[in-house]
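Hi all, posting the design record for the shared folder.

TITLE: backbone redesign
STEP: 1 of 1
STRUCTURE INPUT:
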């Protein structure tokens, strides 16, 4: 039973991160030219707009359900290639990016 929860949470995290990186990031970068902010502030402002778009949530739910259904495959090789490798890779990259952004934020001088 604990593996069921772990696979479900991992599917959700990977689905949301992939939805942010895909069209969410494109939506965020498209609005940067109209913003007065620079750097991470402009990207964060664009991402907040992307998080409220219906396309983002539809894609996040679709990706989460597809990863979750891949985690329930009976063929071990398919489950490894369609669930474990993509979700662990996407989650690791997503956590690394968030950690790096937090580190940069904490180490940047305040003005």
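Okay, here is what came back for every position:
SEQUENCE:
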């Amino acid at each position: 039973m604990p593996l069921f929860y772990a696979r479900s949470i991992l599917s959700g995290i990977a689905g949301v991160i992939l939805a942010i990186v895909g069209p969410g990031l494109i939506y965020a970068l498209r609005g940067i030219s109209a913003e007065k902010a620079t750097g991470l502030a402009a990207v964060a402002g664009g991402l907040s707009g992307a998080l409220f778009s219906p396309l983002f949530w539809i894609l996040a739910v679709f990706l989460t359900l597809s990863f979750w259904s891949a985690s329930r495959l009976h063929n071990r090789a398919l489950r490894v290639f369609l669930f474990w490798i993509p979700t662990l890779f996407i989650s690791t990259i997503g956590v690394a990016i968030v950690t790096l952004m937090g580190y940069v934020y904490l180490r940047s001088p305040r003005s």
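COMMENT: The chain has a mean pLDDT of 81.
Let me know if anyone wants the other runs.
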